[in-house]
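Hey all, quick one. A colleague (J.T.) asked me to put the manganese (II) ion job into the tracker so the inputs and the structure tokens live in one place instead of scattered across chat threads. No bug as far as I know, just bookkeeping. Sequence used:
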Amino acid sequence: MPRFGGIASMMRLPVVGSAHGLDAAFVGVPLDIGTSHRPGTRFGPREIRSQSSLIRPYNMATGAAPFDTLQVADLGDVSINTYSLDKSMRIINDYFDELLAHDCIPLTLGGDHTIALPILRAMAAKHGPVALVHVDAHADVNDTMFGERIAHGTPFRRAVEENLLDCKKVFQIGLRGSGYARDDFDWPREQGFTLVMAHEVWYQSLAPLMVRIRAHIGNTPCYLSFDIDGIDPAYAGGTGTPEIGGLSVPQALEIIRGCHGLNLVGCDLVEVSPPYDLSGNTALLGANLLFEMLCALPGVARR
Ligand code: MN
Ligand code: MN
């Protein structure tokens, strides 16, 4: 079958209904009702899958050959309730509880960033509080948005309150843009998070940062949450809340490749909004970053 033919599963992998027997799986969460500004991430999983069809199984930069050692499939999408954010949180949490019961590592196609909260609830229920590598233009630690405690700008505030994170092992990378108040970033620092502002790493390789992060996190179960808006809108403009002056694509690759060696227990790639992605380039980037996450998982050998 030519790569443009057939059903557009992630990387043209088999679509299966259960995580039983899988080491890792791609799964979509087509949710955008937690979004504060431009919507459209409900179409993210489908477009990421479409753009993933060109991705081949071997990583020519790192030598990673994930399919040599891992059983991987596409689980399709979580059937969220698009009229109820609260019900969707429960549906997502239950889904990931079930997935993790099979010792499968999820690679999640978002969806807006609200989905990280129910996923982290499932992660912490299985592993205890997890370390976190969080790439984003935004810290997503608001207490409320329009009075709501559940939204795409609040998941990591709730995660701290619910003791889902090992706060001394949380790294937020790529933060920037305008804020609501001068002290917006004080709260996460007070929790023990390490914040890496985008402007602090302009023009720099992030490989040395990742060496320090790996040493600091050690073998603690670690979750990788990657908001595509961490990357500059020149490369990833198809998203809901773009901020100028962001990370480059090579820096994003250094972050994900630099997670190899961590005890990764799950990853997500969120906030791709196809209606604002007229070239498809943002979804193409998201698809490739998800492949890089697969290549960074424990048990994936590099040449
Ligand atoms: Mn975010
Ligand atoms: Mn963001």
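Adding what we noticed when we looked at it: The pocket of manganese (II) ion (ligand 1) is lined by residues 113, 136, 138, 140, 227, 271 (CB under 6 Å). The chain has ten helices and eight strands.
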